[in-house]
Design goal:
Helices cover about 45% and strands about 15% of the residues. By secondary structure, the chain is of the alpha/beta class. It has a seven-stranded parallel sheet with strand order 3-2-1-4-5-6-7, sandwiched between helices. It is globular, with a radius of gyration of 17 Å.
């Protein structure tokens, strides 16, 4: 298990699913966790789970596409906690439909949250991390950003952008001992996949060599590895967690 004792970790989109699992995992490794989502009341369950790990927890209501709000959150965390050691950009949305039916609004919404939100939080933490000469940024991408998927042009573009952003940030910040890596989940058992029709689930399963969906904890475990000292010589990497879908 990664040793993150006394580290300060910011997790966006922390209210449920993968974000919640990441927050709890980092807390179990000893990190004090800052939880961000659109509404603070959405975070109540995650707060309770994190507190069970015996660490400090802060919550913020923030829209990741609001640059000023993001800067204010980061400044307040640095003021309150003295530092930010880890940033996990997890906030994301989908608005799936075929390209011919996709509205500009649906394109913009997905690119804004998934890519611009990652950019804004990364930019906000970069300066304090460089100043302290330490930091680990972990971006949640997707295998769809690597292989594409019919009906997900906006999502694929946003996650492909996250991967490219990760590599560029890694090159810019490496000399200051600030690392940036990405995790690309495959099909994970979350509320989003639970609502899919049975035939779609069967089609998904047939494409997974391990013949099972991943769990949010599978992603959280890899994030904890990338956030800690066991990966201290890794930056600019994309780790796929997909049951063998991408190999």
């Amino acid at each position: 298990m990664a040793d993150l004792k006394d580290k300060v970790a910011v997790v966006t989109g922390a209210a449920r699913g993968i974000g919640q699992a990441i927050a709890v995992k980092l807390a179990s490794c000893g990190a004090n966790v800052v939880l961000c989502d659109l509404k603070e009341e959405w975070l109540e369950e995650t707060v309770a789970l994190v507190k069970e790990q015996g660490v400090e927890v802060l919550t913020y209501s923030v829209n990741v596409i609001d640059g000023e709000a993001v800067k204010e959150v980061v400044a307040d965390v640095v003021k309150t906690c003295g530092k930010i050691d880890i940033l996990v950009n997890n906030a994301g949305i989908t608005k799936d439909t075929l390209l011919s039916r996709m509205s500009e609004e649906d394109w913009d919404a997905v690119l804004d949250v998934n890519l611009k939100g990652t950019f804004l939080f990364t930019k906000a933490v970069a300066r304090p991390m460089m100043k302290q000469r330490y930091g680990a940024i972990v971006n949640i991408a997707s295998i769809i950003g690597l292989i594409g998927n019919a009906g997900q042009a906006n999502y694929a573009a946003s996650k492909g952008g996250v991967i490219a952003l990760t590599k560029s940030v890694a090159k810019e910040l490496a000399s200051r001992n600030v690392r940036a890596n990405a995790v690309a989940p495959g099909f994970i058992d979350t509320a989003m996949t639970k609502d899919l029709p049975e035939d779609v689930k069967n089609q998904m399963m047939s494409a997974i060599p391990m013949k099972k969906l991943g769990q949010p904890e599978d992603i959280a475990n890899v994030v904890a590895f990338l956030a800690g000292s066991d990966s201290s010589y890794m930056t600019g990497q994309v780790l796929t967690v997909s049951g063998g879908m991408v190999m």
